[in-house]
Amino acid sequence: MADPKGFMTTPRQDWPRRPVEERVRDWDEVYVPGALLPIIGRQAGRCMDCGIPFCHDACPLGNLVPEWNDLVSRDDWRAASDRLHATDNFPEFTGRLCPAPCEAGCVLAINQPAVTIKNVECAVADRAWEEGFIRPHPPDRLSGRRVAVVGSGPAGLAAAQQLTRAGHTVVVYERDDRIGGLMRYGIPGFKMEKHHLERRIEQMRAEGTKFRTSTAVGRDLGADELRARHDAVVIATGATARRELPVPGRELAGIHQAMEYLPLANRVCEGDLEISPLSAAGKHVVIVGGGDTGADCLGTAVREGAASVTQLDIHAQPRAGRDEEAEPWPTCPTRIYRLSAAHEEARDLRTAPVADADARLFAASTLRFTGDADGRVRSLHLVEVDARRRPVPGTGRTLPADLVLLALGFSGPDREDGLIDQLGLELEPRGTIARDARFATNVPGVFAAGDAARGQSLIVWAIAEGRAVAAAVDRHLTGRSRLPAPIGPYDRPMTV
Fold it and tell me: Is the per-residue pLDDT at 189 higher than 80?
């Protein structure tokens, strides 16, 4: 514990964001470059080195938070990087994209602002890259076993890296033209620039992991052939089956799923397209859905130059702080008012004149869409709802809408490519892939990890799943494993 009084003398200070007027003109990350390192040592010194650090339990990876906080406060970046990478394959991803359940479990958060764990994590990872601490770790010897990983999101990449380092020959199959899954085409660059992803992929290539892009397993490569080529298969395709909005007018042109819209904007940033076919430029945009995907659509539409952007959330506006009765410490509060970078931009730029503040209309339910003579959407009709989602009489209103984006979440893995049916995988009632306590499916040698089996979740849980399934596959192939397994397939976040 570098500073025993740090939590009392040093106030919380987050990584500052760039001015709104500046950052909405580009696709770079929203944070001020270089502004984190000067403050992070003192922020790490706020860690109390608790006797029972609940941040460990709140994080499914079991990150050694007090250890690397202490090392950062002492300016020992190499050792901090070693401790961080002992539990997390991709801390620069989680340091940017994870909502930080570890901070919700921070003991200091009982009555003060939590330690900036997420910022410290990001600073350690970035410093490690700058100093050259992060290098490939190829295995000493090969096992002679081959493993296929289907899907290159965080779960698939974590599983592939762990299994490659254990000596197995791993091939990652990705149906898109680039590796990364939703981190590539779903997450906008202003949340995580893609060079972070590229250098991890290059590290994995140097370690021996092989990548096959533009290969939809089940369509371009049959399931039987996949199994014949490999000794084990890991299904990590994510939960990409999109939820629908079955209301009148859904068939009108101009109404799209969020994951139709976001990949095109990302492809513009990649240089594949000059202008997105679904660009929000000059349009009145309404986003249906109040989660992170909706916020990503919001920030993207603002940068594309939308005439207005409004986000609808069917839930009531959350309270500013934790509800100690419903979600007491150290659980991670799910319904709490958060101001993301995109909402901050919408608030300052007044993108939604009908909304009270940051472009969000809470307790709002979509009734129907209406369009013009050409069959294009022009209006969205909504009504306020009560806590049981019943319409409140007299609260109907109409919003102009030239582009409607549905960000309603995902129900399970997509079956369009045919992989699930070809393998004959059993599914849970909610549509996810069924598996046993060893991450194994009903098909011998086939394992499932990540959102495809767990359901829609956080990136930190996806990486934990990837690490855990790697240990299970290694044990299946060799009879034992020294790979860490931070979680089991039935583990869930802490709740009351």
Answer: yes
